[in-house]
């Protein structure tokens, strides 16, 4: 009849044997193999050609809601991936508000991302030419240097939640989360 100590001793011998043969690395026990990159995702900006030139016009509520929807989806995809951790920008809300729109501020998001403890600052831009032709763009800059490290866009052929989500998921899967090949 085996005791708890016998089971523990056998488990220790198995781990020791796996370490000795190289089938298990001690670093795998101590810590994850890759460091998690901290990401600051800023509110997305929009240019709607239908209201361009009208100083009093505001983007449609549906478009503003969809920009938040795709930003939230991007955060969810990053967090599920395990290689990224999204940092909160809530403590810096005043700075974020003062700096926006980010597509016109020449990397002003970088010091905010750095202050938030992020490694990368990610901004998004929606260029809406019509309800049938929308361009969704993402940009990522290093928080330390401000260097642009990723720029990508996807065309969305329609103006529905499902299509906007399809666009951000496509960018994530095929552009953002893919290592560059040389």
Q: Secondary structure elements and their pairing?
A:
Elements: H1 4-21, H2 26-30, E1 37-41, E2 45-48, H3 61-81, E3 84-86, H4 93-99, H5 109-115, E4 120-130, E5 133-142, E6 148-156, H6 161-176
Parallel strand pairs: 1-3, 1-4, 2-4
Antiparallel strand pairs: 4-5, 5-6
Helix pairs in contact: 3-6
Explained architecture:
It contains 6 helices and 6 strands. The chain is an alpha/beta fold and 182 residues long. Strands 1, 2, 3, 4, 5 and 6 form a 6-stranded mixed sheet that branches. Helix content is 41%, strand content 23%. It has 2 domains: 1-33, no CATH class; 34-176, 3-Layer(aba) Sandwich (Rossmann fold).
In short:
By secondary structure, the protein is α/β, with parallel strands linked by helices. The protein has helices at residues 4-21, 26-30, 61-81, 93-99, 109-115, 161-176, and strands spanning 37-41, 45-48, 84-86, 120-130, 133-142, 148-156. It is globular and about 45 Å long.
**Range of strand content:** 15-25%
Distance between the termini: 60 Å
> N-to-C SSE series?
HHEEHEHHEEEH
Question: Any idea what the shape is?
Answer: globular
CATH-derived architecture of the largest domain? 3-Layer(aba) Sandwich
What's the gyration radius in Å? Answer: 22 Å
In percent, how helical is the residue content? 40-55%
